[in-house]
Amino acid sequence: MIARLGDLVVGRTGARFGTRRLPCAIGRSGIRARKREGDGATPAGLVHVVALLFRPDRIGRAALPAWAEPIRPSDGWSDDPDDPAYNRLVRRPHHFSHERLRQGDPLYDLIVITDYNWRDPRPGAGSAIFLHRWRRPRWPTEGCVAFAPDDLLWLAWRLRPGARIVVQVAS
Length: 171
Prior knowledge:
Elements: E1 8-11, E2 14-17, E3 20-22, E4 24-25, E5 31-32, E6 42-43, E7 45-54, E8 69-70, E9 75-78, E10 89-91, E11 98-100, E12 110-114, E13 130-133, E14 145-147, H1 149-158, E15 164-167
Parallel strand pairs: 1-15, 5-6, 7-8, 13-14
Antiparallel strand pairs: 1-2, 2-3, 4-14, 7-12, 7-15, 9-10, 9-11, 12-13
C-alpha cells in the first residue's frame, strides 16, 4: 500500500501524519499481513476512520471535534467470532465475548474506530482495531495502535470519517 499525502502512516518505529512524527505503540506481535483474532498483531494495510468515541465523564465535549460520540456505560465491542455482531459495537449485557468500552483505566477514554474487518467481518480475522491511548510509552497493545494522550487528541482534531490509515510492515 502506497501512502498518500494526508494519510496517517503507521510503522513499527512510529507514525507520521503530514510532516509530524508521532511515537506510537503497536501490537505485541508486531505488524502482520495476516491478522487472526487474539494473535496480538497490528494488521498491515489500509483502513479508514469510521468513528470517534469518548468518555464524557473524563473528556469534555468542547475538547473534541463535533463528530465525536460519547461512550455509554453499556457500550461494548464484540470480539467473539461466533457472535452475529462480531467486530461491532454492542450493548451490554451481551451474551457473547466482548470488550467493555468504558474501562476503569484511561486507555479507551478516546477511541478512533477503524473499518478493519468491519464492513463484512470475517469471523476470526481480528476485531477492535482502534487508535487509543497508550498504557506507557511504546507499551505493546493487543493489536491496536496507541498514542500518548496529547498526540491522540491532536490526531482526533485532524482525522475525519473516511481518513486513511496506512499500516506498513516496514517503516
